[in-house]
Amino acid sequence: MRTQVVIIGGGPSGLLLSQLLHRKGIDTVVLERKTRDYVLGRIRAGILEVGFVDLMREAGVGARLDRESHIHDGTVIAYEDQEFRIDFKEMTGSHVVVYGQTEVTRDLYDARAAMDGKVVFNAEGVTIHEADGDAPYVTYEKDGSTHRIDCEFIAGCDGFHGVSRQTIPLDVRREYEKLYPFGWLGVLSETPPVHDELIYSGSERGFALCSMRNENLSRYYVQCSLSDTPEDWSDDAFWTELKRRIPGKYAEALVTGASIEKSIAPLRSFVTEPMRWGRLFLCGDAAHIVPPTGAKGLNTAASDVHYLYNGLVQHYHDGDSHGIDTYSEKALARIWKAERFSWTTTNLLHRFPDQSEFDLKMQLADVNFLRDNVNAQKVFAENYIGLPY
Ligand code: APR
Ligand code: PHB
User: How many Å apart are CA 36 and CA 148, to the nearest integer?
Assistant: First the structure.
């Protein structure tokens, strides 16, 4: 088989890139190791920057998002017994959009199917060949036989555990990582959200987040130990702990119920450089991971797609390789800022096992400065709604 761009990974970044390129007449094949249902079964975050929403609209996949999503003009920060609101609208004139990553991925799969986009599921043993040459190709196993796709470029959108990053020689790539000494235990419940905006809460018992998907689907998280398993946490234990970590009025108002999903995610900051090697480009989680505190995981994947999509269109339509030649540099510049914001908010609201009394006083001073200083709130808001592409 031959195509212009082989895209490895049928998650949000791979599908969005495929959809955008297809609408510009650029042929792609998406190779996904799992099934559609498996990919859609993974519960991920749901805060979209306006830049992401604009990309979805440009991809012709904005209708349901525009109909069913919720605009949030602000968020609540709580710390111990105090709380304050960051007003995104007042600080930046803009907002974020609440719409689950699962719904984003579902809409993209539907759009790919509607355009007869080539998405190969259950593609096993994907292997990238000669990405540093002029005639790269990709092979994979399916239904007991080996398949080969010749192409001009490869987009590695296969997440943190994918094959693409591993294809870049160790003497070429440089990896930066920070592992946090805790995870997030997340619960999805068919209950009304406790508040009409997100609540990010720091407490002496650790972090908690109150989020939502819609009027009757809520998503809550508590900071937990990395040795915990979801089985260690009954629903009652989860709700009891959550109530201890949020301001009293929300604890009283909290509607609890059976969890329909419960999972633990470790917290990690990770970046690999460069994000291009020959004809291979890395996008999304394949190149970088952020702790979820800043809601930047999906949004940094989107900015990668923005830069690569525009670079490839420039290459194919104008014969100009400037966009793809500066892809890695441009994508990394925005990613490091998102890494900084995600690291800063994680340090602001979590409890670390080795935190001294002085460290705690510094954390409180950070929170109070954010509460009292309009410039600090503006900086927070600008980062949260998304820095320009
Ligand atoms: N071959 C083919 N497909 C693969 C391979 C492989 N070797 N390895 C992984 N995949 C697939 C996975 O099954 C997954 O569906 O690649 C896809 C990668 O999708 P994501 O992990 O969702 O990564 P990305 O599309 O970059 O989206 C980033 O996902 O994890 C969240 O917080 C993150 O929100 C961010 C978003
Ligand atoms: C979520 O809704 O799952 C969510 C929201 C904000 C975050 C992280 C996760 O920072």
Answer: 22
Closest CA to 195 of 207, 208, 182: 208
Our answer to whether residue 309 is catalytic in this structure is: no
pLDDT of 42 reads: 85
pTM over 0.90: yes
Residue having the nearest C-alpha atom to atom 4 of ligand 2? 45
Closest ligand 1 atom number to CA of residue 285: 26
Q: Please tell me the residue having the least CA distance from ligand 1 atom 36.
A: 298
- Out of 17, 32, 147, 293, give the residue to mutate to test ligand 1, the one with the largest number of ligand atoms within 8 Å of its CB: 32
Across 262-271, average pLDDT = 97
Q: Quick one: pLDDT band at residue 91, thresholds 50, 70, 90?
A: very high
Residues whose beta carbon lies within 6 Å of some atom of ligand 1: 8-14, 31-34, 39, 44-45, 101, 123, 126, 157-159, 161-163, 284-285, 297-298, 301
Which residue from 52, 27, 26, 50 is spatially nearest to 107, judged by alpha carbons? 52
The Cα–Cα gap between 135 and 130 comes to 7
Upstream peptide bond of 274 is cis (omega within 30 degrees of 0):
yes
